Here is the input.
Amino acid sequence: MKFSQINLSGQNSALAQRRAAKCWIKTAGAAICLLSFLLIPPAWADGVSVGKASRLRNLVPAAELEQSAVAEYEQIKKQAGLKGELLPDNHPQVVRLRAIAARIIPVADRFNSRAGGWPWEVILLKSPQINAFCMPGGKIAFYTGILDTLKLTDDEAAMVMGHEIAHALREHARARIAKGQLTQLGAGILGGLLGGGHYTDALQLGGNLLSLKFSRSDETDADIVGLDLIARAAFDPRAGVTLWKKMTEANKRSPLELLSTHPAGENRVKEIQKNLPQVMPVYQAALKARQGTAMSKR
Ligand SMILES: [Zn+2]
Here is the structure.
């Protein structure tokens, strides 16, 4: 009752006591609020911390871009189907990739609140390309080349998927398109765009999301967010290191398609290693929870 005693100095009437009691309740409430704020860690207190996604991306409407991605993905599926390159739902590698995705998708909304409503899908295309992608809106594809040539373990395949999903969650394509359009529109109307977004209609969504080239900072961002995603899904984030070592080796033999749209910096593995201490405890907790669930099902 220290707060009320301070407020009560020199006053002993019932009214003053009631006022003091109210005041104490308010103060105690505020203290509890503050305490709970201190006790409950903010969303970024565990796992990795990344900056906010580029504000420029807001120039391109997310819903329209996601629709455009769905149309492009359907086109890819249709063409692959006609050529007999779309592997069936019961193909063991399709089953495996979908099982990996089913563990990552539930933790995705941590990085993008729209992700819960995305029409997620995973396909496997028969092609020697060492490549994979996740389009805006959660449309994922792997090429058999990446699984076969690199002989990816489940953890490494999860890392590829986590990285690609991270590009979609962090809306790197949306930001790239906005930047590309701005360059085309010219500096003259840049002020207008940034000022009030009056020229948004002039922006076009392109139509070939697959050819979009990410920047090195997008890559680092996707690596870090990808690590966090897979750790939460109980996949070993150390697979990030072995995966990129395999990629680098394969790239020496012949240039990888994936690296042409995902430029890798020399420090990629070092960046991943630097972030492992943040995600290892998340992975260990997720693994424990997963093992506990498996035990209780027996
Ligand atoms: Zn990438």
Notes: Residues 59-297 form one domain.
